[in-house]
Design brief:
- The protein is mainly α and 328 residues long.
- The protein is built from 15 helices and five strands.
- It has helices at 19-32, 44-47, 58-71, 88-97, 102-106, 109-117, 124-127, 129-138, 152-168, 209-217, 238-246, 250-258, 264-278, 280-287, 291-320, and strands spanning 6-11, 37-42, 78-82, 144-147, 177-180.
- Helix 1 links the parallel strand 1 (6-11) and strand 2 (37-42).
- The longest helix is centred in the last third of the chain and has 30 residues, at 291-320.
- The two termini are 35 Å apart.
Length: 328
Amino acid sequence: MPERMRILSGIRPTGRFHLGNYLGAARNWVTLQDDYDCYYFIADYHALTTEPDGHKVEDKVFDVTSDLLAVGIDPSRSVLYQQSKVPEVAELSLLLSMVTPLSWVMRTPAFKEKAKLHPDNVNVGLLSYPILQGADIVIVKGEGVPVGKDQLAHLELIREVARKFNRTYAPVFPEPRALMTETALIKGTDGKKRMSKTVGNIIGVTDEPDVIRKQVLSMVTDVKRPKRTDPGHPRSCNVCAYFKLFFDDWEHYWELCRKAQIGCYDKKKLLAERLIEDFRPFREARAELSPEMVSAILDKGSERAQDVARQTLRETRSAVGLPAYLDR
């Protein structure tokens, strides 16, 4: 039986899941477990580029790991680990940076975006972020990376770096390829931007029902419909866009909206209750997790990931011509 393709993906510890995290990544990760050898990690090294105090992300590591487990990431089928508990990735990032031209990393869209968001902390780690991303992937010999279209430029850079390393030294790394994920682009509660904790326009996934209700009821709806008796415009209404994702009979509600037979507030109430019910199993699963359980799962997964990382680093150091890797 042929070996399954190994894939790698990670998530920054920004706290509990919001709907964008779930629809854009985690739901797909759960499905991929059926067909791939999956490595998923909590990117706490990456978090330091914008939050230099690691103590401030400890609780967030627990939150995001708990949510991954609650929505269906199975540590018996996937390797779920914490990035900083595999410190070999930092050394590999250094070695990859030696063959990466500065111009390659300066052209990446994420650096420019992050520099604008954090103008007082444009650090070298932020600039070399894509190199660390590449090290994350190739240190476990990842062959596939689930990405959306907005991440293709980063992945192509990583492919170029792996290719150059292999040409310069020896063919150590596979060139990871994109596993395109088709996800609906949903806007946050403001109806303008992508869902983001920084913007404050999120809807939770494992939050308590009252929190979800408050978030949904704050949503901006059809700005072209000032009165309840005015016909609605579901194609341009953010709430109606959510109905398309969570209601099998969304066309019925869209028609009611067009005929002014349902108001925006009523639609938001219906949406809130649907989300609360759909996510109830996640909340219940999360409630069963303790910090000790989550920590043990991350420790075990990190040990598995580190075993693979150490072997890769042995091969890398040998290819470069450095002394043999010593297990610490």
